[in-house]
């Protein structure tokens, strides 16, 4: 039964990630998120960023807000808004807004299934982003 419950956030990530990655790629200012990264950049996108960002935004901010009495859904939205703002501040332009919806999926995956599930969803989104770059 656990596998069926785990399937919902992962299924949403699998379905949402390609569309969100395409939107990200279409909205990004030239050069910001539109070029295929080198080997080090690939490691950053596929491993380091999903791990560190989910620790900060899910295990840190989202969980911290819930511990301080915020409703889980509100905490998820606030953490996702902060996640999008972080990408906006990193110079990714309007493309940063395209990460808000996938971030909600990451937040849901975290709330229901834990940090590893959120990291896996995030890594899948980033892999789809690389796929959008590759086919562009």
What does this structure look like?
- The chain is mostly helical.
- It is 82% helix and 0% strand.
- The chain has 5 helices and no strands.
- Helix 2 runs antiparallel to helix 3 and helix 2 crosses helix 4.
- The radius of gyration is 14 Å and the shape is globular.
Show the helix and strand layout.
Blueprint: H1 2-27, H2 39-67, H3 72-92, H4 100-113, H5 115-135
Helix pairs in contact: 1-4, 1-5, 2-3, 2-4, 2-5, 3-4, 4-5
Report how far apart the termini are: 40 Å
Low-confidence stretches: none
Mean pLDDT over the residues: 84
Q: What is the overall silhouette?
A: globular
Give the DSSP E fraction (strand runs of 2 or more residues): under 5%
Structure summary, number of beta strands: 0
How many separate helices?
Answer: 5
- CA radius of gyration is 14 Å
Q: Give the class from helix and strand content and strand pairing.
A: mainly alpha
Percent helix, as a range, is: over 70%
What is the chain-wise order of helices and strands?
HHHHH
Largest sheet: none
How would you briefly describe this protein structure?
The protein is built from 5 helices and no strands. The protein has 136 residues and is mainly α.
Which features does this protein show?
globular, 136 residues, single chain
């Amino acid at each position: 039964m656990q596998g069926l419950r785990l399937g919902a956030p992962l299924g949403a990530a699998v379905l949402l990630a390609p569309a969100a990655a395409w939107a990200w790629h279409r909205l990004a200012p030239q050069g910001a998120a539109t070029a295929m990264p080198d080997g080090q950049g690939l490691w950053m996108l596929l491993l380091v960023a999903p791990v560190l960002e989910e620790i900060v935004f899910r295990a840190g901010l989202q969980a911290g807000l819930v511990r301080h009495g915020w409703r889980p859904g509100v905490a998820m939205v606030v953490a996702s808004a902060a996640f999008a703002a972080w990408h906006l501040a990193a110079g990714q332009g309007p493309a940063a807004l395209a990460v808000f919806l996938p971030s909600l999926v990451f937040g849901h995956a975290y709330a229901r299934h834990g940090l590893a599930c959120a990291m896996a969803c995030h890594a899948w989104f980033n892999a789809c982003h690389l796929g959008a770059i590759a086919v562009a």
